[in-house]
Write a structure and sequence with these properties.
This protein is mainly α. 54% of the residues lie in helices and 0% in strands. Among the domains are: 120 residues, Hypothetical protein, domain 2 (Endonuclease III, domain 1, Orthogonal Bundle); 38 residues, no CATH class. The protein starts with 15 loop residues before the first helix and ends in a 6-residue tail after the last helix.
């Protein structure tokens, strides 16, 4: 029976049985969805597989690769590079020939501004030797151009034992600036000059043992001073550059840790002529 006060709606009438049927249908859909969902472990495995696949992809040609630079020496393959009867490296003469050829032009700064060029050739022998020693002391951790400029100012000021002692630290610092560690070298110059005046009558020692006793003078400087100032070959002057190159060329029986070790190792086999 239809009420005259109500018109028939297009919507379905909701009944209890209809609600139950809808709920049952919804549960079945949820069950089907759960059955289609993959376990977490399988998803993780797929993620790991994708990551592994990405890692194995070839790098782009534009990617930057680290370059490995060998610094001290090239490691050998278990075979010593020093195999000759007298402990000489097998190819050292060829190395030396190439080095001499490369240096035949004598056009490096040290050739024109090294310790051999920094002293006053017209000065008395004792003063010349002192100036050689001073230039070597200033050259540590300093470019040859800077050392030469400092020596030029010192010579104009008066580079003698007596003048260095009489010059105050501040003025001496202005003369040698900007050599490396110039403040420390001011102290070394004053102490060395005083020691030379007191113990060596203003001259420099004529032996390596005597030279290395002076403040600021090491084995390398001592051997160079013996060669330039006294015209005597007492040993090999090894700095960080000679130390590094000697290791890289394989001129040592085993890698050395510092220039002094390199010097001793080279002097064991390197001919004096």
């Amino acid at each position: 029976m239809t009420s005259p006060y109500f018109t028939q709606s297009s919507r379905s009438v909701v009944t209890r049985s209809g609600v139950q049927n809808a709920a049952s249908s919804l549960r079945s859909k949820l069950t089907n969805r759960r059955s289609n969902v993959e376990p977490v472990s399988s998803v993780a495995v797929k993620v790991e597989e994708e990551e592994a696949r990405v890692e194995t992809l070839p790098l782009s040609s534009h990617s930057r690769r680290k370059r490995q630079i060998k610094v001290e020496y090239d490691p050998d393959d278990g075979v010593s590079k020093v195999e000759t009867e007298h402990g000489e490296p097998p190819d050292w003469k060829n190395h030396l020939r190439c080095i001499r050829e490369m240096r035949s032009g004598r056009d490096a700064p040290v050739d024109n501004m090294g310790a051999e060029k920094c002293y006053d050739s017209g000065a008395p022998a004792r003063v010349r030797r002192f100036q050689v020693l001073i230039s070597l002391m200033l050259s540590s951790q300093t470019k040859d151009q800077v050392t030469a400029a400092a020596m030029q100012k010192l010579r104009a000021h008066g580079c003698t034992v007596e003048n260095i002692i009489a010059t105050d630290d501040e003025a001496l610092g202005r003369l040698i600036y900007p050599v490396g560690f110039w403040r420390t070298k001011v102290k070394y110059l004053k102490l060395t000059s005083a020691m030379l005046q007191k113990e060596f009558s203003g001259d420099i020692p004529d032996s390596v043992e005597g030279l290395v006793r002076l403040p600021g003078v090491g084995p390398k400087m001592a051997h160079l001073a013996m060669d330039i100032a006294w015209d005597k070959v007492s040993g090999i002057g090894v700095d960080t550059h000679v130390h590094r190159i000697s290791n890289r060329l394989g001129w040592l029986k085993k890698p050395s840790k510092n220039p002094e070790e390199t010097r001793k190792a080279l002097e064991e086999w390197l001919p004096s002529v």
